[in-house]
C-alpha cells in the first residue's frame, strides 16, 4: 500500500558541505539529516507522514538490504543520530520502527564485521549498541516496532526496547546468542524478563529458541499478531492503525504517561505513585489540559498543540 509522505530523508553524518545546505534549505520545517555519504542513503530512512490523520507519525526505516539490516558500526551511528533528532522534535507524536527490506526486520549484529574487530572493539561496539537501545526506549514519544520479517538477536532486542510490538503471525523471533557462545548483550537479558515471566524468558534465552509471531502474541511479547499480506507490510499497516489511535490524544499527556509507566516499573509502588504525581503536576499548567476541559464542555474534539 502506498502512503503519501511529505518529507523523506536519508539519515547521514552531520559533517559535509551538503549538511549545511540541507539545514538552511529546510530550516523552517526542522526536518533534516544531511551528508554526502551514499552508503548511508541505503541504510536508514526517516520519513514524516503528512496525511491529515497521520500527521505527527514518524517512520524510521531500516534499509541495509545486503546484510539483512544487521547492525554495523555505520548503521548504529545513523540510528543514534536519528533518535537524537526525534527526541527533540515536539511535532512527533508516535514513532514507528520498521524494515524497508522485504523478508527481514533485523538479523542482529553484523557478524562479518564483528569478526574483524579486536576484543576491545567488540566491547566498545556492544556498549554503543546498548546505548542505542536505551535511547530508543527513552524517546519521549511512544515507539512501535512493526515486525514484518524475522527479528533475531539484536533485532529482537531493538524491538523489546520499543513500547509496543506488532508482528505478522508467521514471523520468527528469538534471542539466539547462546548458540554463538555469547549472551544477548544489548538489553535482552533485562528487558525480556520484564515483559514475560522470568522463567519463560530464561527458557527462551537458554535454548536460543525461535518462536512465531503468534506465539509471541500469546506470551505477551507482541501486542498484535496479524496475517501477512501480499505487500509484505501487514505489521506496518497495523502499527499505523495503532499510531493513528494515539495521535489525536494530548501529546503532553501521552509523553507523561509513558514516563510515569517506564519510571514506575523500576521502583516500588509507593515511589511509583510519587513519580505519577510528579508527572501529573507537569500537565496541570499546560494549554492542552485546559483545551481538553473546554472541548469536553463544548462537546467537540479537542485541538491539542503539545503545550
From TrEMBL:
Q: Which InterPro entries match?
A: ClpP/crotonase-like_dom_sf, Enoyl-CoA_hyd/isom_CS, Enoyl-CoA_hydra/iso, Enoyl-CoA_hydra_C
Protein's cellular compartments: Mitochondrion
Q: Which GO terms describe its cellular component?
A: mitochondrion
| A GO term, aspect molecular function | RNA binding
Q: Which coarse location class describes where this protein primarily resides?
A: mitochondrion
Q: Which UniProt keywords apply?
A: Acetylation, Lyase, Mitochondrion, Transit peptide
Origin: domain of life:
Eukaryota
The record's annotation in Pfam families points to:
ECH_1 (PF00378)
Q: Which GO biological process annotations does it have?
A: fatty acid beta-oxidation
Family listed: Belongs to the enoyl-CoA hydratase/isomerase family.
Protein name, UniProt field:
Uncharacterized protein
> Which organism is the protein's source?
Aedes aegypti (Yellowfever mosquito)
